[in-house]
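Run: sequence + magnesium ion -> complex structure.
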Amino acid sequence: MNSRFNASWLLRNCLKESSAKDRPPDYRGKVRDIYTLPGNRLLIVSTDRISAFDHIFAEPISFKGQLLNMLAWHGFQKIADLCPHHVLEVPHPNITIAKKCSPVPVEVVVRGYLSGHAWRTYSNGLRTLCGVSMPDGLRQNEAFPEPLLTPTTKAHEGHDEDISEAEILSGGLVSEDLWKQIRQTAIALYKRGAETARKQGLILVDTKYEFGLFDGKLTLMDEVHTPDSSRFFYADTYQECLDKGTPQKQLSKEFLREWLIQEGHHAHMDSVLPALPDTLRISIFERYCELFETLTGTRFEPVETEDFNDRLSTILESHSS
Ligand SMILES: Nc1ncnc2c1ncn2[C@@H]1O[C@H](COP(=O)(O)OP(=O)(O)O)[C@@H](O)[C@H]1O
Ligand SMILES: [Mg+2]
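>> structure
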């Protein structure tokens, strides 16, 4: 247990849903509450909600929203020379003011290693994922010779499905020119993310990007290189775990997925969600916090969320013209 924070204080400080004075959000996603602003802008609140296998849990994770929003902001700054991003301003640790993009209807997953969904596919004997072939003879969590791009559809409800490049183009989801640009950009972003993580002793295993168009330009939106959108392994223990075939020490939501599987829940479960025990909620907070501190090289300084809705109302008001 991270002795810097008291458990009951942590559990008291959770932002499950935001609501400004007289104004609920225009959209509540799994994690974010979104308020539209004039001038083609969005005010995005990262809340402390956590989801897994496309379900949102009733119990929030203390400060997850701040950790996620601040990590994304850190990540966006690290890639700004490669691709325009959506952030205009971060006026509070839970809030980003962003350019309102028209979303590209595909989520772009880049995988440097044979893990997660790619491993589950591979261990079932398949050697193709989203139309991309995977070489024979790889072990779980081994690096691919080159990063793979494995897109998914962006489902409004339910879970995203794998889709191949050929299906994206033949279905007219994205034009050929734009897809070419997305592909190149996503690989460059992954390489930068991996390089940045490596300097901090972490391996960026795989990650998901969401792109949109703003003023006709390809723009990276949503979040980047966060534990909700990516998997990270510790670099120093990577080779040993790979050789021994033991689980990698990792910092991501995989921790929660593993707990669920242990409790008998599986991917794409339709059943009732289990309640997250307080000890698990604290451990998840600690993982997110550790990832934040490792990746940014700075200490996480939480801001209490008791008066969050008042702060939100003030920020909304000051951005409403
Ligand atoms: N700059 C942006 N412009 C338009 N849409 C955005 C932007 N950034 C993020 N989004 C969208 O806002 C939503 C973010 O909320 P989230 O809780 O992640 O939702 P979801 O449940 O859809 O994953 C996502 O649907 C994401 O695609
Ligand atoms: Mg999302």
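>> summary
The mean pLDDT is 94. The CA atoms of residues 10 and 62 lie 6 Å apart.
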